[in-house]
Design brief:
Largest sheet: 4 strands, parallel
Distance between the termini: 34 Å
Number of domains: 2
Structural class: alpha/beta
Number of helices: 8
Order of helices and strands: EHHEEEHEHEHEEEEHHHEE
Strand content: 15-25%
CATH superfamily of the largest domain: Response regulator
């Protein structure tokens, strides 16, 4: 959602975002901007400071009273105190005009990534794929047996921290090929420091543990591309 009163700048921002395949909405009634955010639940708000009849600071404060949606100030005000005030009001980033389009897109992507990671941390401590359940709280992988196998009895095996993180990332991308580089970068973001060889060792160990509970071929390999479930 874009909150910008200069038509030319607003059009430039919206076109840039649409070209980057984002869905964009514009706010025209600035006094009701916070209410529109609450009603439409955008994934991110780009917010100018100098708006007719109301300050961007006030809009951000109102948004924060009812939502944790990421807010990025995009403004011509370059004073460091303005930036500090913006962050204290609850903004996630502060970008000054004129902006470089690639930099703006990179900063938006970074904020959205942090926001998505925070949401995932609040999700259920278990995640499933077929009859396989990953228990994030216990650090276990389990297979749920069918009714013909002793009435939904569950078999499980413990995982190391590295194994749990690897499986969690794969479970979050079912049906997608996850590259080795993406896995390693994700693990580094999670404060798990491994290299390419260590990743291979962990994948082998995970497959061995899956076999212990009767799960075969859950993790597939696409040669030269990565892994998938």
């Amino acid at each position: 959602m874009v909150v910008e009163d200069e038509p030319a700048i607003c059009q430039e921002i919206c076109q840039l975002l649409r070209n980057a395949l984002y869905q964009v909405q514009e706010v025209e009634t600035f006094s009701n901007a916070a209410e529109e955010v609450a009603e439409k639940s955008p994934d991110l708000v780009l917010l100018d400071l100098n708006l007719p009849g109301i300050s961007g600071y006030d809009i951000c404060s109102r948004i924060r009273q009812q939502s944790e949606v990421p807010v990025i100030f995009l403004t011509s005000r370059t004073d460091s105190m303005d930036e500090l005030t913006g962050m204290l009001k609850g903004a996630d980033d502060y970008i000054t005009k004129p902006f470089q389009p690639p930099i703006l897109l990179a900063r938006i992507a970074a904020v959205l990534k942090r926001s998505a990671k925070g949401q995932k941390e609040q999700e259920s401590p278990t995640i499933g794929y077929g009859d396989v359940i990953l228990d994030l709280a216990r650090g276990e992988i389990a297979r749920k047996r069918g009714e013909s196998e002793a009435g939904q009895k569950v078999e499980c095996v413990e995982l190391t921290k590295n194994e749990l993180k690897i499986l969690h990332y794969l479970f979050l991308h079912p049906g997608q090929i996850v590259s080795r580089i993406d896995l390693i970068e994700y693990l580094w973001d999670q404060q798990v420091f491994i290299d390419d060889n260590t990743l291979s060792v962990n994948i082998t160990r995970i497959r061995g543990k899956l076999k212990e509970i009767g799960v075969y071929d859950l993790i597939g390999t696409k040669r030269g591309m990565g892994y998938y479930i």
